[in-house]
Amino acid sequence: MENIYLGIDVGTGGVRVGAFSQTGRMLNKGDCPIKTWRPQTNFVEQSSEDIWQATGKAIQSCLSEGAVNPTAIKGMAFDATCSLVALGRGFEPITISPTGNNDQNVLVWMDHRATEETELINSRNHSVLQYVGGKISPEMEPPKLMWLKNNLKNTWKNGRKFMDLADYLVYRASGNDFRSLCTTVCKWTYLGHEEDGGGYDPSFFKENDIEELFDNDRVPLKSHPIGGCAGELTKEAADELGLPEGIAIGVGIIDAHAGGLGSLGAALNSGDDDPFNHAIALIGGTSSCHLAVSESPRFIDGVWGPYFGAMFPGMWLNEGGQSATGSLIDLIIQNNGSYNDLVKAAQSEETDIYSYLNDIVEKEMSRNGLEIFNDHHVLPYFHGNRSPRADAAARGMMSGLNLNQNVNELALWYGATVQAISYGTRHIIEAMNGQGYAIDTIYMSGGHLKNSFFIQQQADITGCTVITPEAPEAVLLGGAILAALAAGEYSSLNDGMKNMCRPGGTVQPDRSTHSFHEIRYEVFLEMYEFQKKIHKKMSTTNR
To answer: Most buried of the four, 94, 387, 490, 539, by CB within 10 Å?
Structure first.
């Protein structure tokens, strides 16, 4: 009987579980949605208890069809969004919400309530910021923690643990508060490269008046590298999840970084003498992350990092990203007056709305060329810009709006939005290549793999070859690799990736589109500059 490893992914909308063999073959998967609250504008909250219960349901869904024998499961590993979990007395949930509801104890990564705190931190320009791309983001934990201290004093006083979500899941499963180098380096300003094994710079937290964060082990001073074992599944957790106790638990990882492992493993088998310098992992879903690694640190304005050991031991990670991609596409589609007509039309064709729109766009392009998009331009910063502008105050723009209300017009705006997201990827890659990378290949994973038009636009607009993984769920596979390492199946991360990751399809850029996209890319860049002029003018008005 072959060994089985579980990758458990907690995304923004739900929990997914994949069961994999030691060779990376996915045997089965399961999923379960999770709840989200939005009590105010820019407030996005979840519940750690709801997430844990959903984890158990997703695991049981994965096991339910009999394809997976629970006694064969030797390891499991969690990845999750970089959301902040607060636990109070007895390590029970404690509220992070203006509602006061203790069930709402998770500040979701996309929660932007702490924009003022973010601006204050950045204005102080502490030296640790050079390792987060020069500016901290409201998606990171220090601004969120400052907001809690300033606005929910009871939570700050009585909080016993403040944890990244992946670390919480490890803690809940193993009973060990075993913080990950991935989460703490990327989201907490942990300096993993320091000679003594890394640590936090106390002066940063004192400067921002949250130095008591480390009192009574609320946040441990030590973090642990990816690929290690954090402990074993306790009897209590095993009973709650419906699994045998004693399963090895891998050190946690951020969800996008798990996708990076599950995607970039194929690069190790590419035959390239320096594969990582030419490769970037693009993990797309609600948002998108762009991950590249190097042997030496590369400081790139507006690109998070360099993060030491955050994805590969001994290597530096640069992380670009777009705060809204899948969510932006859905917004553009659903907020159009023709949305209901689109749904009915797709149902009549027995297809999904994205495939239906792709069909319209591709037929129009075949008849009339790319010029169908001449009047449709989108700046995709509807939730700010994460990279490379690092401008949380940036906003979306659309140029070319008209009075047409039909599915064909909606298809054009959908296509223009997909292209705008791809221009954002190009902008990120250019920033990285300007500081030492030579990226010409995108290893793509995540929800966008289901969209052939999206993949082709990424290739055409960036000029990069796009490699899709053989495994349909690269994020889950990344977790399974860490689970196999925790159980001792493989001796190193590279060994695990080589044995469990394989490339699937290859999409080449259509070079004939280059000149058209060059012009639209210039417009894309100019739209932001024009927006800055608007913001500057309006800042002089009395409000």
So the answer is: 387
CB atoms within 10 A of CB 36: 17
Q: What residue numbers bound the domain in which 406 lies? A: 1-543
Q: Which amino acid is at 527?
A: M
Contacts of 260 (CB under 8 A, 6+ apart): 281, 283, 289, 291, 311, 478
CA 540 to chain centre: 36
Residue partners of 324: CB distance under 8 A and separation at least 6: 286, 287, 331, 380, 382, 383
Interatomic CA distance for residues 424 and 321, integer angstroms:
9
Among 171, 349, 256, CA closest to 180 = 171
Instruction: With beta carbons less than 8 A apart as the criterion, state whether 283 and 475 touch.
Output: yes
Residue type, 496: G
- Measured between alpha carbons, how far is 415 from 401 in angstroms, rounded to an integer? 14
Cis peptide bond N-terminal to 306, omega within 30: yes
Model confidence pLDDT, tens digit, residues 337-351: 999 999 999 999 999
Q: Picking from 2-6, 132-136, 170-174, 223-227, which range would have the lowest pLDDT averaged per residue?
A: 132-136
DSSP 148-174: HHHH-HHHHHH--EEEEHHHHHHHHHH
485 pLDDT band, cuts 50/70/90, is very high
How many domains, in total, are found in the chain? 1
What does the alpha-carbon distance between residue 108 and residue 62 come to, in Å, rounded to a whole number?
25
- The one-character DSSP state at 42 is T
- The reply to whether the predicted model has a pTM over 0.85 is yes
pLDDT of residue 543: 54
Is the Cα torsion angle 89, 92, 98, 101 positive or negative in sign?
negative
Q: Kindly list the distances between the CA atom of residue 196 and the CA atoms of 115, 159, 218, 368, in Å, as whole numbers in the listed order.
A: 33, 29, 21, 62
Q: What is the CATH number of the domain that holds 475?
A: 3.30.420.40
Closest CA to 254 of 287, 276, 212: 287
Report the pLDDT value the prediction gives residue 542, as an integer from 0 to 100. 60
Which DSSP helix (H) or strand (E) runs through 62?
A: helix 48-63
What DSSP designation does 269 have? T
Positive/negative CA dihedral, 150, 152, 153, 158: negative
Confirm if 73 and 1 have CB atoms less than 8 A apart.
no
10 Å Cβ neighbour count for 346? 18
In the numeric block, the tokens 């304005």 are attached to 301
Residues 309-345: tens digit of each pLDDT: 999 989 999 999 999 999 999 999 999 999 999 999 9
